[in-house]
Design a protein that fits this description.
This is Mannose-6-phosphate isomerase-like protein (Cupin superfamily). It comes from Sporosarcina limicola. GO terms for molecular function: isomerase activity. InterPro entries: RmlC-like_jellyroll, RmlC_Cupin_sf. It contains no helices and nine strands. It is mostly beta strands and about 120 residues long. It has a domain of about 80 residues: Jelly Rolls, CATH 2.60.120.10. The strands form two sheets. Strands 1-2-3-9-4-7 form a six-stranded antiparallel beta sheet, with no helix packed on it.
Length: about 120
Amino acid sequence: MKKPEINLSIPRFKEVDGHFHPAPFLLTEEMFGGVSIEIAGGEISELVGKPVANMHTHDVPEIYLLFSPEKGGAKIQVDIEEEEFIVDSPATIYIPAGMRHRFITLEAIKGSYCLGVLLNDNH
């Protein structure tokens, strides 16, 4: 039986096109022998009204995961191309590769998270 791997060096901060600061990644392609997804993001209660990125694109699809300790405890505005969506937690949002997007935290109680899952194809 293969020994499990544990990685304690998270988050790993990586530059992401369109983002104002390096993004905190909890899972990267380089971990665990090359996984095909990456997960970035974190707690958002201190980001209310503070966009973390300009409109930008990724070469791969992305799924946002929005959750909070209480239903409706977080609300984000998701701009995709020319459309604006207001989303309450818990929610998932799928953004196809190449679509311009960003999110802005509108409301978030402590313990609210927004994670971006990048669906890389490294095969």
